[in-house]
Design brief:
Blueprint lengths: L1 H4 L4 H10 L4 H17 L7 H22 L4 H17 L7 E5 L4 H11 L3 E8 L8 E6 L26 H4 L15
Antiparallel strand pairs: 1-3, 2-3
Length: about 190
């Protein structure tokens, strides 16, 4: 990490690694944008604020892709994303960047799968049973760009694996569950 530390601060590097959700191409694009921001600011290395700005820009690019790639569904998907953000990030009781959704054939579930395809939410685990056997849920994390700009939104708990490698079932069971029919409550 010594040579790497001359190019990027450790916190910025970890943020970029986590924010790309395991997609090397996304990491390289975010890192490149971070370097641009650092250079514009006259800094010799990428700092956390540079990484946050790059992540925010990447999010705007993803939203533009949503409008391009899902023209017929863009209003539904935007409503779904707004409802998820409200439930996870703005609700006083949740304040976490992740959610569970029941694995069933519903408009909400299909919208979440499409948002995952568009890289706006990321699958953490395919099968979680938070309450009782037979009730299957999937765990997702909101894309970092949805709550990071120049600074990360305050008081948002970030889902990170306890051991730094893999999520444990008990950790995932604590994630808030999206209410069934949440799209029907959106205007």
């Amino acid at each position: 990490m010594d040579k790497l530390a001359t190019a990027v601060a450790e916190g910025a590097f970890h943020r970029l690694v986590w924010a790309n959700a395991g997609v090397p191409r996304d990491f390289l694009q975010m890192f490149s944008k971070s370097i641009e921001h650092a250079r514009r600011a006259g800094r010799p290395r990428v700092e956390l604020s540079d990484a946050n700005l790059a992540i925010g820009e990447f999010g705007r690019q993803k939203m533009a892709e949503l409008e391009e790639d899902a023209r017929n569904e863009q209003n539904l998907l935007k409503r779904a994303l707004e409802a998820i953000e409200e439930h996870c990030l703005e609700s006083e009781k949740n304040k976490v960047n992740a959610f569970l959704i029941r694995s069933e054939s519903s408009d909400e579930y299909k919208a979440v799968q499409t948002l995952s395809d568009l890289r706006l939410v990321h699958l953490l685990h395919q099968t979680i049973t938070p309450h009782k056997a037979g009730e299957r849920y999937e765990a997702y994390m909101l894309d970092y760009s949805l709550f990071t700009g120049f600074r990360q939104r305050r008081n948002i708990e970030q889902m990170l694996p306890e051991d730094g490698k893999q999520f444990k079932a008990k950790q995932l069971r604590k994630i808030p569950i999206l209410p069934q029919g949440f799209l029907k409550t959106q205007p």
